Amino acid sequence: MTIKPIFTLKEAFKNLWRNRLMSIASVSSVTATLMILGIIFALIININAMAQSAKDQFDSIQAYLKEDITAVEIDAIITKLSAVNGVQSVAYESKADALVKMKESWKDNAYLLEGLEANPLPSSIIVYLKDIYYASSVLIEINGLSGIEEVKSYQDIVEQLLSITEAIRKAGIIVIFVLIAISTFIIHNTIKLTVNSRQREINIMKYVGATNWFIRWPFLAEGTLLGLFGAGIAALLIRFAYDAVFEIMHTDFYVLVSAYVVLPEVLMADIAFLFVVIGAGIGALGSIWSMRKYLNV
Amino acid sequence: MIEFQNVVKKYDNGVTALNGVSVKIEKGEFVFIVGPSGAGKSTFIKALLKEVKVTSGHIHMDDMEITKMHRRKVPFLRRKVGVVFQDFRLLPNKTVYENIAFAMEILGTPHRNIRKQVPMILALVGLTGKGNYYPNQLSGGEQQRVSIARSMINNPPILIADEPTGNLDPDTSWEIMKVLRTINRRGTTIIMATHDREIVDIMKKRVIALENGLIARDDKIGVYGYDD
Questions:
Q1: How many helices (H) and strands (E) does chain A have?
Q2: Nearest residue on chain A to B92, judged by CA atoms?
Q3: What sign does the dihedral B97-B99-B102-B104 (CA atoms) show?
Q4: With the C-alpha atoms ordered A80, A85, A89, A93, is the resulting torsion angle positive or negative?
């Protein structure tokens, strides 16, 4: 049998309208579950972004050099470290550079440094990593070098950060899958009510000689449309809610944190795609699932 | 041509509804199936439509062997056999026109043809002008005519009627019988299960009586023969 998309869609819309109470119930349940899913998704995305920017700040290792080190030795260390796997670049920070930096970061209190007779700050080499994952291996290399007084790395913080983001990501994925399962079940149940109330109709169709797919298509279209409607409404609600939160974050004293908040446009692109796929998916799955037993007449 | 060869149907609950039924129905015949409740009339009809799977025996319809037919082919069998039920089985949220058109849409009939043929079949069953009514706006007799129109719209060679007059008063029943007779005269084989003594006795058609899953009687021009 050939599928006639216009006929099928027309039937689906007609039936959605004729069973409008049921349709509203289904759409609201999809909207509700997708909303929760969207909120969790937004949280995960933002935590990931924050972790990413934090990682970017900690992707360097500072090795303080001994007082008596010579320029030749420094050059040797720099060439050696540049060749190490995972190293992006190596920079030398002299005692004077270090003082300038400190003055900059102290800002208004920098006058306190004026009274210093000699520069007490050590010179150092800053190793920028390609990625934070190389931190431990590079650290071993640095510790093997001579002429180094002390190494300052953020490895502990970074490792904690990595494990936390990893845990959040895993938990998020699990929660999302559970939510998808739950919403498929809800759609399955709501469409089963629709199918139930139209059991007679399906039965009659079978008697008149309709094939299973002929009967299934309109229901499939219905379920998919319900899912898409729910997805659309949920996406709009998430959009408004996220915009509002984003606004608050930027006007109030959260400004410090807000730099890490993902832009609404970026988030919505992901959410829209996710919602359309999941909405249509659970709608279709739920409808096929719910009418399985009614087709065996 | 329909042929039952030693058909047995035992249900899972142990009831034997058909216990070796062999019968032949020729093209263009008008056959009444009579018998007390539980004699196997319904199972006989369900077996013909492959609504139940028979335990043993063969059922042939023209060149098809229904008993061996794959489940996927069943819709195509049902398109060759129009069915009319006691309770009409019309789609309540479709109009008369839509109910009949639906049977054609299933076959992928172009809308042009549907628009032409539905009024013709409505005229045949005497419902001209009622196309836009919903089933609940019609009388029982009118609903049964819609259901006959739906079953005949694709010109099936066989029409099965399961107590088509069971819910109707005697006058209306006769109107339905007239419609069925007209259809039969156009060459359609009609198999009608019924409890209606008056109709069977007056129509003077072939009567097959089922009792305890067996054929008790098969008369060319028969009578009802039971005292209800």
A1: 11, 4
A2: A201
A3: negative
A4: negative
- For A7, name the nearest residue in chain B, comparing CA atoms only: B105
Contact A200 B78 (CB under 8 A): no
- The dihedral over CA atoms of A32, A34, A37, A38, expressed in degrees to the nearest 10, equals -110
CB < 8 Å to A209, chain B: 75-79, 103, 106-107, 154
Asked if B105's CB is within 8 angstroms of A209's CB, the reply is no
CA–CA min distance B86, chain A (Å): 13
Q: Which domains does chain A have, with CATH numbers?
A: 5-55+159-295 (no CATH), 59-153 (3.30.70.3040)
Per-residue pLDDT of chain B (228 residues), as tens digits, is 899 999 999 999 989 999 999 999 999 999 999 998 888 898 999 999 998 899 999 999 988 899 999 888 888 888 889 999 999 999 888 899 999 998 898 888 898 999 999 999 999 999 999 999 999 999 999 999 999 999 999 999 999 999 999 989 999 999 999 999 999 999 999 999 999 999 999 999 999 999 999 999 999 888 888 765
Interface test with B, best of A17, A20, A204 (most B CBs within 10 A): A204
State the sign of the Cα–Cα–Cα–Cα dihedral B116, B122, B126, B130: negative
Q: Is there a contact between A297 and B150 if contact means CB atoms under 8 Å apart?
A: no
CA distance B109 to A147: 91
Give the gap in angstroms from C-alpha A270 to the nearest C-alpha of chain B: 41
What would the pLDDT profile of B2-32 be if each residue is shown by its tens digit? 999 999 999 999 899 999 999 999 999 999 9
Contact residues on chain B for A5, CB-CB shorter than 8 A: none
ipTM of the predicted structure?
0.79
* Residues B75, A203: C-beta atoms closer than 8 Å: no
- Binary contact (B89, A2; C-beta < 8 A): no
Candidates A145, A153, A151; CA nearest to A78 is A145
Model confidence over A22-71: pLDDT tens digits?
Answer: 788 888 888 888 888 888 888 888 887 877 777 777 777 888 888 888 88
Please give the sequence-ordered ranges of beta strands (E in DSSP) within B87-154, or none if there are none: none
Cα(first)–Cα(last) distance of chain A, in Å?
A: 19
- Calculate the CA A253 to chain-centre distance: 25
Angle, alpha carbons A208-B114-B94 (nearest 5°)? 55
> In the CATH hierarchy, which fold is given to the domain comprising B2-219?
Rossmann fold (3.40.50)
Nearest Cα of chain B lies from the Cα of A230 at a distance, in angstroms, of 26
* Ranges of each domain in chain B: 2-219
Taking a C-beta distance cutoff of 8 angstroms, is the pair B172, B126 a contact? no
pLDDT band at A1 (very low <50, low <70, confident <90, very high): very low
Indicate yes or no: CB of B106 within 8 angstroms of CB of A210.
yes
Top residue of B70, B106, B121, B151 to mutate, by most chain A CBs within 10 Å, is B106
